[in-house]
């Protein structure tokens, strides 16, 4: 006969004397299991590649995933912007908080929203671009079923409600969806740079602005080609770009601010000159005034640095 001892987690069997006719119940609390016993031998199976004969949903690309990522990224962007407007626009920094130390948690929270949104929109854009290339130039010998490209029919000027089914389109693809994702990615990079400027991380702000400008390098070439033509209109983007000249000028202005914080006057002046040129062509008076004011400040600092350097060289020569 055996004495059966049970617990809430693991049963235990202990042999007892055949003369014993009593059954006991004992409750044990297992704190840690360092070497759990193997209940049954594991059956190893080699992974198989998906083929066109598979009927499972994991064997094909789900076209709604990219749209879902994009809409969630948009909502996170709206959330980060709401945090800034809610807590900063109505509560200006006081004289006791001149450096904005009390508002750094707000910028950090907005940065977290923008950062996660950037991950989602980058993933969505990569997926759409990858499968668009596969549809245009199919790989020879690829027997997988064709992958559908997602389409984004959501209005880019309003926030998307994830609780509404109609905001997640499942119809045929449209090339403009990739442009919309690139535009959202551009805006998120600029928002990240703004948050980093507010907390004093100028080097990271420069990197994010540069990455945003690399999304559409045609604008920089376009501005260089039209630097002497003040009558050229910027109503249309070069090569059908989804990013406008005003947005590119904003990225250059923000990167110039980061350069100024690091006392890189030459780089800041170069960015501001291109920003002023783009804003003049686009007719953006508010942005033009801000860029011209900042450019004048940069030129003043450059002259001041040159004067200080000349005085130091003069004193150094007098010693010899």
UniProtKB/TrEMBL annotation:
It comes from Paragonimus westermani. This is Uncharacterized protein. SUPFAM superfamilies: TPR-like. Residues 38-57 are annotated as: Disordered. Residues 40-57 have a biased composition (Low complexity). InterPro entries: TPR-like_helical_dom_sf (IPR011990), TPR_domain_protein (IPR052769), TPR_rpt (IPR019734).
């Amino acid at each position: 006969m055996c004495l059966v001892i049970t617990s809430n987690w693991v049963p235990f069997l202990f042999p007892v004397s055949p003369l014993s006719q009593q059954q006991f119940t004992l409750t044990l609390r297992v704190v840690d299991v360092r070497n759990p016993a193997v209940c049954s031998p594991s059956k190893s199976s080699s992974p198989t590649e998906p083929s066109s004969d598979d009927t499972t949903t994991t064997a094909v690309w789900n076209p709604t995933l990219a749209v879902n990522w994009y809409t969630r990224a948009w909502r996170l962007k709206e959330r980060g912007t709401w945090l800034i407007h809610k807590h900063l626009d109505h509560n200006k920094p006081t004289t006791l908080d001149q450096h904005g130390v009390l508002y750094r948690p707000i910028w950090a929270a907005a940065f977290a929203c923008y950062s996660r949104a950037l991950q989602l929109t980058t993933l969505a854009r990569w997926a759409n671009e990858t499968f668009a290339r596969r549809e245009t130039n199919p790989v020879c010998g690829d027997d997988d079923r064709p992958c559908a490209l997602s389409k984004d029919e959501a209005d880019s000027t309003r926030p998307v409600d994830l609780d509404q089914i109609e905001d997640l389109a499942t119809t045929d693809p449209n090339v403009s969806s990739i442009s919309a994702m690139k535009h959202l990615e551009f805006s998120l990079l600029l928002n990240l740079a703004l948050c980093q400027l507010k907390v004093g991380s100028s080097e990271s702000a420069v990197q994010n602005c540069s990455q945003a400008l690399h999304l559409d390098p045609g604008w920089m070439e376009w501005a260089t080609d039209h630097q002497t033509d003040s009558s050229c209109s910027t109503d249309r983007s070069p090569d059908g770009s989804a990013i406008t000249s005003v947005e590119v000028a904003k990225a250059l202005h923000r990167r110039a601010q980061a350069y100024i914080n690091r006392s890189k006057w030459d780089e800041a002046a170069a960015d501001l000159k291109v920003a002023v040129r783009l804003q003049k062509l686009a007719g953006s008076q508010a942005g033009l005034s801000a860029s011209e004011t900042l450019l004048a400040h940069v030129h003043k600092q450059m002259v001041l640095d040159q004067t200080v350097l000349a005085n130091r060289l003069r004193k150094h020569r007098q010693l010899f």
